[in-house]
Amino acid sequence: MKAVCRKISPIGRAHGCVEFNFSRVSLIRQNIIANLAGSGWVALMSFAFIPFYIHFMGIESYGLVGFYMTLQAVLFLLDLGLTATVSRELARLSAEADAAMRMRTLVRTLELVYLGISGVIIVAAIALSGWLAETWIQAETLSTEQVAEAVMLMGFIVAARMPFGFYSGGLMGMQRQVSVNIVKAAVETLRNGGVVLVLWLLSPDITAFFLWQAGVSVFGTYVMAVVLWKSIPKSSVKPVFSRRVLQQLWRFAAGMSGIVLVSILLMQMDKIVLSKMLPLDVFGYYALASVVAMSLYFVITPIVAAFSPKLTQLVAIGNQEELVFRYHQGCQLMSVMIFPVAVTMALFSFEILSLWTQNKEIAEHTYQILSILVIGTVLNGVMNFPYALQIAYAWTKLAFWLNVAMLLLLLPLLIMMTREFGIVGAASVWLILNAVYVLVGIYLMHRRLIPDEKWRWYVQDLSLPLFAVLLVAVTGRLMIVETMSPMSMFFSILVVLLLSFIAAALASPLARERIFSAVKQRYAL
Predict the structure, then answer these.
(1) For residue 252, what pLDDT is reported?
(2) In the predicted model, is pLDDT for residue 7 greater than 60?
(3) Considering the entire predicted model, what is its pTM?
(4) DSSP state of 237
């Protein structure tokens, strides 16, 4: 442990001396790099092959894939907060001595509950597949039997994939994030690359697509379970199901379950409603835009996952000063990483879709939806770190009740906006709700947990990097002309993105301080 003096807040705060454990700092950095690398590879595997899915199966079948992704997200409601619970508890127990038996009992207990949930999902999918195929999904070229069969396979895939998230959540809490990302990268490569080969060489239909997904899902979950159990310290006592563990954790799990419930409904309600209101091919365009917009979470999630166990540990030991520093460090890193990507994506949505899909018709139907959804998603993304701080304090009420309030507004607003303005109006609801969430949620959260840090969050963590990115990206948008060749357009957008990253980093106080310090050390200034 080494003591170093660091300026905790550049606005109106004195210099303070804080003790930092540099092995922990190194571990956070390692986890961020591993998470970003893993998520980057998963994103590459996910998005590189989508044009091939559409090419082989058609946009209507891709609409069914979009329905599957919505179904998967909605059924995550049955997680009951168990993934967040195992992650937080293993993070807490890993800081204690002689906790091996408790860790293994915790995992075994929650694991058995989770496997029971997976069984319920399979039974429900079989029972409801016919009804969904006949009355909910508006297919035109696919037969009812094909759709029903696909829905049953969807249920099996979700049932197999949900424990994958549970086991990876446990590893994340133990800060074994390198292992998680290695397994994720391998499984996603097999899942996405393999299915293209199946569609190309065996059968270009939706049933073949889901059969391959099902097999890879079972394999991936098994591997992640083995990695988690091998990572938990050994104990001479065999792990068994414990009702006492459930009794101790049910309040936190219930709070997390409530938050997850309303959060998923908020994020998926548009797709649930639109899958009923729109023809399957039109819904396919919306699903495509949503998938691209939500790709921001390939950047958001790794950063939050790297910092969250550390925030929980700092709350547990009462180190408020380092907690505040880590909070702002994470928030500013988040802004530096997601604002350049989001703003570039929103301003160049048509060009990006055209280059990616090589299909002007798809780009024309999708680009406006994408721009709106990206803005809403980046607003949702900046709230993830404040949310992580709330979870570190085990304070779940604020997020739950805010989400409930917005959920009550969502359904009538969504139906009205869709009827009045079509698919663009539906996308606008996501933006409106997240704008309200940022304005209200940040104020209430800071007032209770860290009341002196609210304006620092608004100014340094949010506004400075955002304005810097907007200045660069808007200038780039005005300079780039539509008559460029595809290759010139690609490199022009890439330059705008890189310059936006540089602007965000220089505008962020903690990132700028780190850059200048590294330069001084490198050149002995």
Answers:
(1) 65
(2) no
(3) 0.62
(4) S
**CA torsion 15→305→287→474, rounded to 10°?**
20
Phi-psi region of 98 (alpha: psi -120 to 50; beta: other; left: phi over 0): left
**Percent of the chain residues past pLDDT 90, beyond the cut:** 13
Q: Tokens at residue 126, please?
A: 């079989």
CB 473 within 8 A of CB 340: yes
Give the CB-side neighbour count of residue 163, counting CA atoms within 13 A: 29
Which one, of 305, 283, 370, 320, lies nearest residue 68 by Cα?
283
Q: Both tokens of residue 308?
A: 């969250």
Can you read off the two tokens belonging to residue 471?
A: 């200045």
Structural contact between residues 86 and 106, judged by C-beta atoms closer than 8 angstroms: yes
Residue that has been written with the tokens 């509950």 in this structure: 113
Whether the Cβ atoms of residue 506 and residue 337 lie closer than 8 Å to each other: no
For every residue of 56-119, which 3-state class applies, written as one string?
HHCHHHHHHHHHHHHHHHHHHHHHCCHHHHHHHHHHHHCCCCCCHHHHHHHHHHHHHHHHHHHH
Domain boundary assignment for the chain = 49-241, 280-525
Strand, helix or coil at 48?
helix
Q: Is 6 helix (H, G, I), strand (E, B) or coil?
A: strand
Ranges of H-type helices in 294-451: 297-317, 320-347, 349-357, 360-382, 384-392, 397-448
Dist CA 469 CA 482 (whole Å): 22
CA distance 305 to 303: 5
Q: Which of 121, 50, 135, 17 is nearest to 359 (CA)?
A: 50
What pLDDT was estimated at residue 412? 86
How far apart, in whole angstroms, are the C-alpha atoms of residue 76 and residue 449? 29
Name the DSSP letter for residue 482. Answer: T
CA separation for the pair 125, 157 (Å, rounded): 10
Q: 450 by DSSP, 3-state: which?
A: coil
Q: Is the dihedral of CA 215, 216, 222, 223 positive or negative?
A: positive
List Cα–Cα distances, 152 to 130, 269, 273, in angstroms.
9, 21, 21
- Tell me the one-letter amino acid at 16: G
How would residue 473 be classed by pLDDT, with cut points 50, 70 and 90? Answer: very high
16: pLDDT strictly greater than 50: no
Tokens matching residue 504: 């965000």
Cβ-contact 213, 195 below 8 angstroms: yes
Residues in Cβ contact with 204 at an 8 Å cutoff, skipping those fewer than 6 apart: 56, 57
Q: Work out whether strand 15-20 and strand 2-7 pair parallel, antiparallel, or are unpaired.
A: antiparallel
